[in-house]
Write a structure and sequence with these properties.
There is one protein chain. The protein contains no helices and 16 strands. It is mostly beta strands. The protein folds into two domains: 39 residues, no CATH class; 104 residues, gp9 (Jelly Rolls), CATH 2.60.120. The protein is elongated, with a radius of gyration of 21 Å.
C-alpha cells in the first residue's frame, strides 16, 4: 500500500499498546476508531486523536458511581456516592464538593478499601471531604477492591 507520491509502502503500524496492526489486505484500508469520549479524524496527511478524560455528572443524588466518571456535588442534603462493586485496574472516579451544605460521603463496599497517602479506610469504609471545594481523584489499583487517590484538594476524614 502506498500513499500519494511516497515510494515506500506502509507495511505495518505499531501502537504503544496492543501490538502491530496491518491494513485490510483486500481494501488496503487501516481503520483507527475512537471509543467513549475519544474521537479520531483525518485530513490529508494528518490524523488527529482527541478527547479522553472523564465525563461529569452534575449534582448527583445518592447513587452507585460509574467508573471513569466525575461527580460535581451541589446538594443541600447529605449524599452518599458508593464505589462500584466491579472495577478494572486503571479505572478512575473523581468527586468534588462544589456547593450546598449537605456534604458528601464516598462509600466503599464490603471488601473494598479507599486510600490516600498513608491513610487507608477499613473494609467498606468511607472518605468525606471536610469543606466545600475539596476534591479527590481515585484510581483502581487492585481490581474491584482497592481505590487509591493520586491527587486530592483539601482534607478528608475516613472510617
Amino acid at each position: 500500500m502506498t500513499f500519494g507520491p511516497f515510494p515506500k509502502p506502509v507495511a505495518t503500524v505499531t501502537g504503544n499498546t496492543g501490538g502491530t496492526i496491518y491494513p485490510n489486505p483486500s481494501t488496503g484500508n487501516l481503520n483507527i476508531v475512537g471509543s467513549g469520549t475519544i474521537s479520531v479524524s483525518g485530513s490529508g496527511h494528518s490524523l488527529t486523536i482527541a478527547g479522553g478524560g472523564l465525563s461529569w455528572f452534575d449534582n448527583p443524588s445518592s447513587i452507585v458511581m460509574v467508573v471513569n466518571m466525575g461527580y460535581l456535588v451541589k446538594s443541600s442534603s447529605a449524599i452518599t456516592l458508593t464505589v462500584p462493586l466491579t472495577s478494572a485496574v486503571g479505572d478512575t472516579l473523581e468527586v468534588m464538593w462544589v456547593s450546598g451544605g449537605g456534604g458528601v460521603t464516598i462509600q466503599a463496599n464490603a471488601g473494598q478499601i479507599l486510600s490516600y497517602a498513608d491513610t487507608v479506610t477499613s473494609s467498606g469504609g468511607t472518605l468525606s471531604p471536610t469543606a466545600k471545594g475539596n476534591a479527590i481523584h481515585l484510581i483502581c489499583v487492585v481490581a474491584s477492591t482497592t481505590w487509591m487517590a493520586d491527587f486530592m484538594i483539601g482534607s478528608f476524614t475516613k472510617t
